[in-house]
Design brief:
Blueprint (H helix, E strand, L loop, with lengths): L3 H5 L6 E6 L2 E7 L4 H5 L11 H17 L9 E2 L5 E2 L6 E7 L2 E7 L4 E7 L8 H4 L2 H6 L5 H18 L6 H4 E7 L4 E6 L4 E9 L3 E7 L1
Antiparallel strand pairs: 1-2, 2-6, 3-4, 5-6, 7-11, 8-9, 9-10, 10-11
Length: about 210
């Protein structure tokens, strides 16, 4: 296997942020071939679609970029499809869209991340993930905001990681703070107050939760 650390010294990421001393996130723009990733990170499950396989490999490669000691070979998949480490040495979350992979890794915090391409199509399904109170609270929102709200709820879903979540009932968005790019949220299943952080890019939105 190629020395990952030496490779990473010369490979930039699209975006990265140190959240705190133990938590880091990043976005990888996938421009490499499948062979590049396979030489560094083995495939952990059968993925037949070439595009999805490339995203899968890039996400796991990004985990080691963010945390060089990350034991990717120990990753398991729960019945809810959430990847995890049995001993919880690290908490992590991965997301993909188009030619991008996003990941967040923490030594001591539960985390969730989601990345989405902004699209007008989100308007057609907004009623499925926004409750009536949320539609009243955030009236006449455009597709960029709707994409943000979807991504925000996805990040909470991944943070929770145990499935059986009703996006409109259980994930309740309370207030949008555009100046500091956060959303106040109440997760009804565990009665937990959360702060969702987000970041806009030219055609994408990234949302994450650390708690």
């Amino acid at each position: 296997m190629v020395n990952l650390q030496s490779k990473l010294l010369f490979v930039p990421v699209f975006f990265q942020q140190q959240i705190n001393e133990t938590t880091r996130l990043g976005i990888w723009k996938i421009e490499e071939t499948e062979e590049f990733f396979k030489n560094n990170v083995p495939l952990h499950r059968d993925v037949t679609h070439p595009k999805k396989r490339l995203q899968h490999l890039a996400g796991r490669f990004l985990l080691q970029f963010l945390a060089p000691a990350f034991p990717y070979e120990l990753i398991q998949i729960a019945e809810t499809r959430k990847p995890f480490l049995p001993n919880e040495e690290y908490h992590f979350s991965i997301s993909h869209c188009g030619d991008y992979a996003a990941a967040i890794v923490s030594k001591d915090k539960r985390v969730g991340i989601d990345i989405e391409i902004q699209t007008e199509k989100i308007k057609k399904i907004s009623g499925k993930f926004l409750s009536v109170p949320e539609q009243v609270l955030f009236p006449a929102v455009n597709f960029q905001l709707l994409t943000l709200f979807w991504s925000a709820k996805e990040s909470v879903f991944k943070w929770y990681g145990e499935g059986s979540v009703d996006f409109s009932e259980h994930i309740q968005l309370k207030r949008l703070h555009e100046g500091v790019q956060t959303i106040d949220c109440f997760f009804a299943k565990t009665k937990t107050e959360l702060v969702i952080h987000y970041r806009y890019f030219e055609h994408m939105v990234l949302a994450w939760v650390v708690s």
